[in-house]
Design a protein that fits this description.
13 helices, five-stranded mixed beta sheet, 18% strand, D-Maltodextrin-Binding Protein, domain 2, globular
């Protein structure tokens, strides 16, 4: 006579089998699916997402990641507002969207180092230092963007106040190929963008990196992880586990250069040479714990005020939370 197995009996047997295998019973639970958007794919500071996916750090923490790539922070914000994204990897200045009512909040710092960005020049340029950019045209992504503000900040730092002295921001968009073309054709004298732009120009013997932005900006909350208010309300523990997996991936990257470089080539589109240089310069600058730095937030606030994006009275503490960061 065949026996009938009740649901309770079945669960007991499954639990016992997992125990024999040395696995926790919780491992049998389905992972929480997290839709994660990248503002752009060609950013080294977003590579931990791919490391975490490939080497199982998210899976270990019960998270199944669906990666969705965008071509701008504004497009990413629109998708999040529409409910199509749970978490986003984007620029710190997107915290302004939160102040304007976007259903998201910054939950972790990816990096507060401006070293991830630099000023690149073409092979025809004779510039040797920042002083040589006086009165020059510098490519930026758009009016009112962080790169636009960085040109203004350069003018302030250098005291270039007259029209003849001021470096001039020229909006050309943020795609690296557009930056390469603008520099190579002489449309602009220099370009502010990711460090990889300068490195790739050097590989092509078409230009070089003049400086990274730490030459005149020491701290700014540059790249940030955001969570939608919906996922925070519906599954706050999944946000915690996602961030735990993220910083475990960062720790892995710090001691696994070869694997990180290879995945940077595959996911960010760098050449191996550029990926190696990016790793050596930027890996130490990736946050290991996600904590926000006061000075970096203050500089970001200053950029909001200078660009007239937000009222000076805005409190930055309302635009981020540390509630979901891994415990020390």
């Amino acid at each position: 006579m065949a026996s009938v197995l009740t649901r309770r009996d079945a669960l007991t047997l499954v639990g016992g089998s997992l125990a024999v295998l040395g696995l926790p019973v919780s491992a049998a639970k389905a992972a929480d699916k997290m839709r994660v958007g990248k503002a752009v794919a060609q950013v080294f500071s977003f590579v931990p997402l791919n490391i975490g996916m490939k080497y199982g750090f998210f899976e270990k923490n019960g998270i199944e990641v669906e990666e969705i790539n965008f071509v701008s922070g504004s497009g990413l914000a629109q998708a999040l507002t529409a409910g199509a994204i749970d978490m986003t990897l984007s620029a710190g200045p997107d915290m302004a969207f939160t102040a304007k009512g976007a259903p998201e909040i910054a939950v972790a710092s990816i990096t507060s180092s401006p070293a991830f960005m630099g000023i690149a020049i073409g092979s025809q340029s004779t510039a040797q230092t920042l002083d040589d950019l006086k009165g020059k045209k510098i490519a930026v992504t758009s009016a009112g963007s962080l790169t636009y503000w960085l040109v203004d900040e350069l003018n302030r730092v250098k005291g270039w106040t007259s029209d003849a002295d001021r470096a001039i921001p020229i909006a050309i968009g943020g795609a690296p190929p557009t930056q390469f073309a603008a520099i190579k054709t002489g449309q602009v004298d220099a370009s502010i963008g990711g460090l990889q732009v300068g490195y790739q120009l050097e590989e092509e013997h078409a230009g070089r990196l003049l400086v990274d932005l730490t030459a005149y900006v020491k701290d700014i909350e540059l790249f940030v992880t955001f969570a939608s208010t919906a996922i925070i309300q519906q599954n706050p523990d999944a946000v915690r586990r996602f961030l735990k997996g993220w910083y475990e991936a960062v720790a892995f990257m710090k001691s696994h250069k070869a694997e990180t470089v290879q995945l940077s080539v595959e996911t960010a589109g760098y050449t191996p040479g550029v990926a190696n240089r990016m790793y050596d310069r930027l890996m130490p600058q990736l946050s290991s714990d996600g904590k926000f730095e006061a000075k970096a937030l203050e500089k970001l606030h200053a950029s909001f005020v200078d660009l007239k994006i937000l009222d000076p009275s805005i409190e930055m503490s309302k635009l981020y939370t540390t509630e979901f960061l891994p415990k020390s």
